[in-house]
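Re: that chain you flagged

S.,

Sorry for the slow reply, it's been a week of failed gels. I finally had a moment to sit down with the sequence you sent. For the record, here it is as I used it:
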Amino acid sequence: MNTTLGPQRIVCLTEETTEWLYLLGQESRIVGISGYTVRPRRAREEKPKVSAFLTAKIDKILALQPDCVFGFSDLQADIAALLIRAGVQVTVFNQRSVDEIHSMLFQVAAMVGCAEAGLAWIEANRVQLDGIREAVKTLQALGKRRPRVFFEEWDEPHISGIRWVSELLGIAGGDDCFPELATQSLGKNRIIAEGAEIVRRNPDIIIGSWCGKKFRPEKVAARAGWQDVAAVKTGQLFEIKSADILQPGPAALTDGVAQMHRIVTTWMQSHG
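Prediction finished late last night. Pasting the structure tokens below so you have them in one place:
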């Protein structure tokens, strides 16, 4: 492993690359982070905050003299363009699936001379995910059915179906109530216009992760017409923090899926 290779002064515009570089022991390369970063917690104390998600302090980033900036998705294209025009190397990833997240992690690890360590982490994570799948199969073999799960990424309007969440939910043992939305990368294309359609699909479990806003199960339960939804009737409303599931990186592949698996298997154990 030659960690003198690759960029030495990195700005991370989203949390997942920050967390990954810390996991690789390469945090000394990070010179700037997103203001939304909470994983790892120490990053907020150690690194300058230079961006939100849709906006960034371009002058502050340039003053840090980065030799690489990591970003995520088309939503950061304008930020990337400004930095590129200023002569900065920018790498924008667009990972949406579990396999794409693993691919992004490997690419970042390789860029900082940690390909071997990165691959080892990825392979270990794949083993962990396979273990979760097998645990679900064991319950199913005992006659336990998989619950229908509505994952609400935002409440007003209702947004669901983000691809890696849908895939991880399937691994965890739940059946996504809106699997067709997982093919849509843009949030505006994953809006569920009619709450009545969610009611009609009658989820057994509702998991909320309102993108940084606290999930309010009592508000969900009080929605007009939702009182007969199975999840509401049985009190199966849960929150997973957005930092644990909505960043397409290590957190979702570890803590996020583990929380979903606990919620789902607890339900399966009490239902035939």
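What I noticed first: Residues 138-269 form a domain with the Rossmann fold fold (CATH 3.40.50.1980).

Talk soon,
D.
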